[in-house]
Structures are given as C-alpha cells and as structure tokens.
Amino acid sequence: CLLLWSKNDDPVETVELASEDDDWVSLRLKRDQQEFIDHRGLHVVVGHYLGDVNNVGASANLTDELLNRNMFDPKPKEGRDGTPVIIPPHMSLQMQKLYRINRFNLMASDRIPLNRSLPDVRKKSCRLKKIDIDKLPSSTVIIVFHNEAWSTLMRTVQSVIDRSPKYLLNEIILVDDASTRKFLEKELDDYVAKLSVLTRIIRSPKRIGLIKARLMGARQAKGKILVFLDAHCECTLGWLEALVSRVAEDRKRVVCPVIDIISDETFAYVRSFELHWGAFNWDLHFRWYTRTTPDIMKGQRDITQAFRTPAMAGGLFAMDKSYFFELGGYDEKMEIWGGENLELSFRVWQCGGSIEIAPCSHVGHVFRKSSPYTFPGGVSHVLYTNLARVALVWMDEWQEFYFKFNPEAEKYRDEQQIRTRLELRDRLKCKGFKWYLDNVWPEHFMPTDKRFFGKIKHMLSNRCLEKPSGRGSLNQPMGPVGIRGCDVQGRASLSLMFVMAPEEGLDSVVWSGSLMTDESVCLDTPELEATDEIALKVRIVACTGQKRQRWKYDAETMNLVHIHTDLCLDLPAGESSIVLKGCADHASQKWIFEQVPWR
Ligand code: LR7
Ligand code: MN
C-alpha cells in the first residue's frame, strides 16, 4: 500500500510513503536499496520512472502492458451482475504485477465486459417511485482522468450510456489530464466517435490536476446540469433521474449518489449502506459517519427522501451549471488532488446552498488503497497547499486549530494568495464557519470556546486517556480507551485530546454530555448488563448521542461519573485497563481536565 518514486532514473533516495490511513511520511533511503520493511512493519518496494511512462512504484518494466489498451479479452460471463472475478491461480503472479499499474486488479477489470450487467440495488420503494422525466433538464456527464486504464474508463462511460434515459443525457465530456498512455490518444478518439451518445474529449496539454480539469470540462458543458464522475465508476439503474430531479426542484441543491464499492481486488459490486453521511476529521480529511438515530427515524418515514450531508466525498455529484459558476466553480489555485471536496462543501453550505445524498441513486466506485499517479511537487506540497487554502478561506478561527496541530500545513500557510477567494466569499455574503458547525453539523466534535478541549489526566498514575489505535467499521477508531504519558507535543498529542460541552445552568467547573474525540467517537461502556466489574471496560465507539455515552465531570470531587449507571471512571493502581466502579473518594478515581488552548 505504498507508493514511491524518483525524479529520473537515478536510484531513489528520498521517498514519500502513503499509508492506508492517509498519513504521509517522507524518509531517506540508502543508495540502491530496493526493498525494505518500514518502521510500521509495512513492506515497501521502490521503483523508478520508466521514461515517458508516468507510472510509479513498479519494480518490473511494464511498458508493454501500458501500451496495450486491454491485456485480456473480456469474457461474457466474468463479473456478470456485479459478481467477483476469480483469477486462476496460474495467473496470479502476472495479476499482482499488473495490480501495481493502477492500484487495482487490472486483470480482473480487463476480463469483465464493458457493458456488464449490474443488479438493481435500489430499495423497492425507489423502484416504484415515479419520476416524470419529461419535465427534467438534460445533463452533461464530466469524467476527468489521468492515465486511467482502458477497461475502467470505458466501463464508466458505457454504464452512463446504458443506464441513463437518453433524454436526460445531453453529452459526455472526457477530460484527459495530460495522460501519457498511447491507447488514450487516437484509439480513444476513434472509439468514442462510435458511441451512441455524443462523447467529447478535451485534452489538457499539461498536467493540471483534477480540479482544473473539471473546470475545463464544466466550461464547455452544454447540459443544464453538470454531473461529475471519477473515471472508474459504474452507474446503476435510476441513478441519474434521482439526482437530476432534486437539482431541478431547487437549483441550489448539490446532490450526491450513494457510493457503492467496486472491489479493487475482484471488481465485485458491493452495495453500501444508505445511512452514511459525509463530514471530515481534525486533519481535514473527508470521512463517512453514521447518521444519528433521530435523523434515521425521520428518514424512515420515506426512505426515498434525500438527506442532507455536511460534506461530500468529492468525485460524484450533480449540480446546476449556472449555480456552479455563480458560486465560484472551483478554487483554481488548488493543485492535482485533494481538498476541493471540502472547499466546495463549505462554500455551498456557507453561501446559501445545500448538499444532500439521494438514496435512490447508486453509483459504484473503485476504492483504492493508494494513488497510482505522480503528484508533481510532492504529495505533501500538493495536499497541504490545498488544505491550507480550505482552512484560510472558509474556516475562520478554526483555521488556527488546523494549523496549530498540523505544522506540515502551517509551512504552506503564508505563501497562499487567497484574496480573490475571500472577495468571492464577501460578494456571495457567505456565513461563517461557526454557523456551519452549529447548523449544518451540530453533532460535530470540533473544539469551541464554550467546550472543554484538552487532556484528561489520571491523578494517581499521572497518565492521560488516549483514543485507541484500533479501527472499527467505517474505519473509525474503536476499542478499549487507552492510557499513556501526557507529555506528547504537537500532532501526536491529538490522540489525547477530548471534547466535552459545559452543563447548561451550572458553573463552568461541571462538564457534562458526550466525551467526544476526533472522528466522531465517544467514551462508551457497551457491557452495561455485566455484573462483573472487569467486564465494564470502558470503550471508545462511534458517537450515538445515547444516554450511555453521557458523562459528568465535577472539578471539585474530580470524579468522572457515568450518568446512566452512576458509576465512576477508575484506573486501579498498577493496572492498565480503565473500568467503571462504584464512586468513592479514592485517588484511582480522580481525574484532571487539563484544558489546552485550541487556537
Ligand atoms: O492529476 C490528476 N488528474 C486527474 O484527472 C489526478 C486525478 N485525476 C482524476 C483521476 O483519474 C480520477 O478520475 O481525478 C479522478 C479522481 O482521482 P482519484 O480516483 O485518484 O481520487 P479518489 O477517488 O481517491 O478521491 C476522492 O477525493 C478526491 C479529492 O481530490 C476527488 O474528489 C475524487 O473525485 C474523490 N473520489 C470520490 O469521491 C469517489 C468516492 C470516494 C469516497 C469516499
Ligand atoms: Mn476515484
């Protein structure tokens, strides 16, 4: 899951690593060192650029494969109805080699017909719902790509053509962001000329990144509605009607489909839940969270109803073209990849629009564990430039929070020219980030001036509560709450930070409510029925707002009380698990809420 590159054919000396949880590390290598195990135990293979081929990370010469548009003849039955492709064992070595080119199983994808069938994954009530398409405007589907594989790109296009009502689909625009693969030149031109829906190719002579590439496509679109897709998607029946009908009703709505998973290993189509919404974490990375109970209840009256989401994943959405440009398109000073999803999300909400997910629209996307292409200028430079711009333009005082705990991004802060974006914000009379947090994402776990933000220190052992490193569903942290030394500085200290609201009506020495931390996880105790005290291990799980996640801290007694059971948080001397016990005036139950300035 790592990508590495050198600037030319010289042996790689400095490399940047991308781990699965998106933390970017750069490190130096010994000369000619080709393979090693890194400090986290990950196996790393180092490769070189292959001349004009813009592919990295491969240890073998893949030039031949890259010149071929499809390595294998599609087989009519492979992947039918979204089923997984099973590669025969004797081909597995070649399969692994090909995987590296695009960071997905190219062999599997190539064996699936471009027009494979997919199940109708919609709920029954969605299938029964009548949408009067005669009154709906038409769309331009915009797909940007840089060195995409033939089979994934063309299956995306084919699925759009096969599963959209002709009447709603004005055209498809493919924006080629300076790809270097031969088959994406004339062969692609010739192929799209024969398609039954007008498909235009716009080519950028130099690498401009997905943000500017989308802008290029959007400017030339003839449809009233813009529909953006990544270049490795598959649309299912009814996907377009469900998006467009919502935008047509209100041009200020930005509408996303439910994003299903196309496996990067087998290309199986896996339906995902309709209960997830999007937001972000303290690092400003997009994250999925589970909708809270009252919100689900509202939705259950009519499960076909679109629901509002604080942020969008970024790649798949429909938006009125004139509204897109009225709102400022995209930030043209953003580079290559990243950050534009939050930038657009904040801008839409803060400037009077809304973002929602239409549960009757399902589109599959190939999720990858790492990026297959280069980031000119370096991953850190690209990503932190973009995120610094998001913070500077839209986040008001929370930009201080972001930069304070992300010194990597702070480095790019001063060099940003943001005047025109601030003018845009002014001109559109956009609301502040506080408004966004209070109104669009009231369940958020960001620090505020009214909330407690800081470390929770155990008096007896002089150690602090820590968010577990284990991960649960949706990749959220999960597991028994940890305890460790409190003297951690900077970024690393974020795993010790907790957030809690003050009790209303009481003086500020009492904090109560959910004890939240980054990624929407809360202090919880799932085994309430157990009588054995050992079983009452205090855990960190997804915040639900339920009673059993409510706590109360009294600065006088220094007890942290679990409200539902009236038990106290305890770390018995010499032990390492945090438990609940009957409250007592005992040192093992005394905690200090140590505030840390968040900005
Ligand atoms: O320099 C580039 N030029 C491009 O044209 C880099 C990329 N691209 C193209 C690329 O070929 C692809 O078609 O841009 C598209 C998106 O790139 P990916 O597939 O590498 O991105 P991703 O799927 O890993 O990342 C998500 O976040 C991105 C942040 O910039 C974009 O918003 C992606 O569109 C977005 N993808 C989705 O939202 C799909 C659902 C994923 C989730 C959750
Ligand atoms: Mn993608």
TrEMBL record:
Tell me where on the tree of life, at the top rank, the source sits: Eukaryota
Q: Would you name any one GO CC term?
A: Golgi membrane
Give the enzyme's EC designation.
2.4.1.-
Instruction: Please give the chief subcellular localization of this protein.
Output: Golgi
Occurrences of domain Ricin B lectin (ranges): 453-594
Task: Kindly list the places in or outside the cell where this protein is found, as annotated in its UniProt entry.
Answer: Golgi apparatus membrane
Could you cite one Gene Ontology molecular function of this protein?
A: metal ion binding
Uppermost EC category: transferase
GO process terms (BP): protein O-linked glycosylation
Tell me what this protein is called: Polypeptide N-acetylgalactosaminyltransferase
